[in-house]
Amino acid sequence: MVTFPNEGSPLLPSINTQSLQARRGSVHQVTFSPLPRGTGEGDSDHFRYPLTPGLRLGRDTTHSSTDDEDGDATVGIHGSIDRTREGNGGPVASTWKRLATRLRYYVPIVSWLPEYTWSALSHDLRAGITVSCLLIPQALSYGSLAKLDPINGLYTALIPNLVYGIFGTSRHLAMGPEALISTLMGTIITDYQHTLDPSLTDSAPDAFLSAAGVARVVCFLVGLITFLMGIFRLGFLDSILSKALLRGFVTAVAFVIICGQLIPLTGLNRIPGDLPLHASPVDKVRYVVAHFQQSHWITLGISVSCIAFLVGCTLLKRRYRRVGWLQQIPEILVTVVVTTVLSYVLGWQDHGVAIFGNVEARFPHPTLPRIPEPIFYKDLLTSAMLISTIGIVESIIIAREYASKNHYSVSPNRELVAIGLANLAGCVFGAFPAFGSLARSRLNDRAKARTQMSGVITGLVVLVTILFLLPCFHYLPRTVLSAIIFNTALSLLTKTPRELRFLYRVGAWHDLTLFTLIFVSTMLVSVEVGILLAVILSLLTVLQRTTVPRITILGRRTGTKDQFVPIPDYPDSVEHVEGIMVVRIEEPLFFANTGQLQARLKRLELFGDLATHPSERARLPPASAVVFDVEQMPDLDASALAILREIVESYHLRKVTVCFVHLRPGLFTAFERSGLSEKVGHGLFFTEVPEALHYIEQSRSFTSVSSGGEAQVDTDNETTPY
């Protein structure tokens, strides 16, 4: 009797999961979440194994994101292995267990595939096919946008999806070509071709051959950069780019794409014109307006109809979000199928409409990237770094968004490794750079994808299309591809009005200025200049804010004796301690943020706050004592120790007493080794601010009595910290 598996049955029933778990022993299995940490800080039976020489052992408590941030910032491996439970297999068995754990961690498919169920397969199958219905027309369009043969867009949709399914940690990230990346690739390829041979045009027979060679090299460099960023644990870099800057860049690129598609949408690319090669978006709009009477009206009608249908479907889906069947309609696929059938039936080709034409159905031949002129590697490397920056930021944001929505965690560093490997493999098979897509990932989530298998299925559907279904696109009007690109660019603008209103409402004039600057530079100069300026301004903003130490002057709250709060936060309910400046340092001190520390302390002493301009006259008398509350300073480096030493020496030259409060024992050791504790004075470290003030007041009393010829010290109230 034949029995059929139910939905909860494992897809691979031959694997005895119980015995497999028994063989794993105490090694924790990694699925989609990071391995558990050890039991405690001081548990000597738990230890970590570093992958990279020179990384220190120990637990880093400074990172506490949803993921491990690979969870373990010190060793690159998340999780602990209990030596007391390794069993009796000996060191060889223990080594194999560790290798198995590492394999499951770095190759996630090894972890989730043995537990894969028929229920998950049914969901992933539906999601993979649904996403492919959107991806295939997009890939053909983006291949053209990148100045490549449209089939290169399909290669970009094929290989990265298959590789990411093996190494990726996100269940919903949909890999493939993207509009922004394709636009940059088109610019790079155009610049390279005409630099190499000014007589070469896009219609020349060898144009696609040379373009494909450039695309391979750029894809290789992008993959290598992304892979190395993951290996060196730079997954946090997506956080340093300002959201306003990115929105300004994305908005500008959307307008660049829209302006660039106006010519093929109107059929004006069929007539000879005087449009310069590197025409700006404004030049392209002027060209269309000037030659609009020469438009190919059938092409224009097809374009307008397709755009209206796509925009209408988008608006309906946005309005009726809860209507499940409406959300599943693949409007792009419907557009492609309907226009292809109409083109064949009505003979649009005979009426001057450009069609997709014959494309050889072939599996991509593996070829290593090479370029005849090494002098171009420098320019291509710069472009690859810009593409990597855009793709990494977008992909990690998407992966984190859907991981949070579906209650699992992703690893930014392992995501970079997976995306890097996907592009390294893709460059061998004729792909250009591929990253995650927000639209396709959203569709993947709505289709209830369960695992990374949905991406593998998407890649397999693309493979079937390449091998067997390409002849079906023979009569597809090329203007339909331009309409798809145009609609994608419009979708990039949907968030812009809302974000601009938000920035205006909160008075973020700095962000609005940056938005405008990036938008104008991208529109009037080039896309490369826009993204380069965005990265530079983001880095400068980060540097500006990290190089300014966060310090606050404290005052005694009115009506209390031992409660000290920031004076700027409670200006009407605190009182200054006469002649004493109590300063709280609110962050770790290191070489970058200590350069302005002395100047900011001087401003606090003169004005009582940091908002007053230094040109104003002093409001407070010079301080006779300074108390540093360093409870919120968990760490400092050698440069910070040297700066603090200089500050203490300058205060002592003015006969100003310096005390430290809440100094951590580990930092006190650093103070001792650097000689700073001796410079301050061993009796001037306290556990509470009131104790330091009491000591200072006693010292004042002692000084005043000594000036009268008699000294008396209350030794019963002396306080020392350690």
> Radius of gyration in whole Å, from Cα?
32 Å
How many discrete structural domains?
3
- Estimate the mean pLDDT confidence: 80
Q: Which spans of ≥5 residues are poorly predicted at pLDDT below 50?
A: 14-86, 709-722
**Which structural class matches the secondary elements?**
mainly alpha
Tally of DSSP helical segments: 25
The biggest sheet, with number of strands, parallel, antiparallel or mixed sense and barrel status, is: 7 strands, mixed
Q: What's the N-to-C terminus distance?
A: 80 Å
Strand segment count: 11
User: Could you say which overall geometry the principal axes of the C-alpha atoms support?
Assistant: elongated
Beta-strand percentage range: 5-15%
Helix content: 40-55%
Model description:
This protein is mainly alpha-helical. It has 3 domains: 17-114, no CATH class; 117-541, no CATH class; 548-717, Transcription Regulator spoIIAA (2-Layer Sandwich), CATH 3.30.750. Helices cover 54% and strands 6% of the residues. The chain has helices at 17-24, 90-106, 108-112, 118-145, 150-167, 179-196, 207-231, 243-266, 281-290, 297-319, 324-327, 331-346, 377-405, 412-428, 438-446, 453-469, 478-492, 496-505, 509-524, 527-546, 597-607, 638-653, 665-674, 676-680, 689-707; strands at 46-47, 81-82, 174-176, 435-437, 551-557, 564-566, 574-575, 580-585, 625-629, 657-661, 685-686. Strands 5, 6, 7, 8, 9, 10 and 11 form a 7-stranded mixed beta sheet that branches. The protein has a two-stranded antiparallel ribbon with strand order 1-2. Helix 4 crosses helix 12. The N and C termini lie far apart (80 Å). Keywords: Membrane, Transmembrane, Transmembrane helix. It is a multi-pass membrane protein. Residues 570-696 form the STAS domain. This is STAS domain-containing protein.
